[in-house]
Request: fold
Amino acid sequence: MGPLETKLGGGSLESWLLGVDIVMIPETCMPTGKVRTAFHSGENFSHMEWKRRKMGVHSRAAKRDVRTGGMCILVRNSLIPVLHPTWELVGPDLVKLTVRVQEKKRRGGGKDSPYTRMLHIFGVYLLHANSDYRGSRERINKEREE
Reply:
């Protein structure tokens, strides 16, 4: 997909995301951090940065190849107060978004009692999956030409 910063900065991604409430974008090629657009907010998670933190590598060395891979999760700004999202990198290839919706449940006595519904959304990032796919497509095309 190319660097997400370029797509967001140029506005080419904004029009595509207009009708989307929650989006997961793989291969973002940017460091871990918060991401904001005109209509969405979220976080980007870098696979390589996570791996270096777990291994305890010095911060200067950690910045070297941080712009590879990654997964970005964005939620529509108008839904953030309703969904109360939390973002978390669960593992090297697994990102979790938890949304909570508070509702009132009517009990038998006519009283309302608040309760929370939770939904866990997982985004799986397969390291080098896109490049492997590209290589297999090229191989198939060469076989067809022969």
